[in-house]
Amino acid sequence: MQAGLQFKANQRLGGESFLVVSVEPARMGGKGRVRLSTPDRWQWLVGEVWNDVAAAMPPGYELVVTAETVKGMRFVRPDMVPAQ
After folding, report:
1. For the purposes of burial, counting CB atoms within 10 Å of the CB of 11, is it exposed (0-12), middle (13-18) or buried (19 or more)?
2. Cβ atoms within 10 A of the Cβ of 26, count?
């Protein structure tokens, strides 16, 4: 799944970038997590791929980004709740 989601992100961005997609499987009845991360000053990449990655995620997973990433994107969407 991780490779497929990274492929979706790379496709949206037109090739490989500093964006990393990481997948954590669900544990003990909880939800799995898909993390989007970038180095400082590259957080805007998350905003570029957010919808594509979310649409390709299987049920039972949540999309997670850091508060720093949300701030770096220079906008906050109502459906974004930053991880603490």
Report:
1. exposed
2. 12
DSSP string over 15-57: S--S-EEEEE---TT--EEEEEE--TT-THHHHHHHHHHHHHS
For residue 30, list its beta bridge partners.
none
pLDDT in tens, 23-47: 999 888 899 999 999 998 888 899 8
CA atoms of 40 and 12, how far apart (whole Å): 20
Judged against a pLDDT cut of 50, whether residue 84 lies above it is answered with no
Contact 72, 41 (CB under 8 A): yes
| Global confidence as pTM | 0.79
Closest CA to 5 of 32, 31, 30, 27: 32
Residue appearing with tokens 């790379």: 10
Q: Distance between CA 55 and CA 58 in Å, rounded?
A: 8
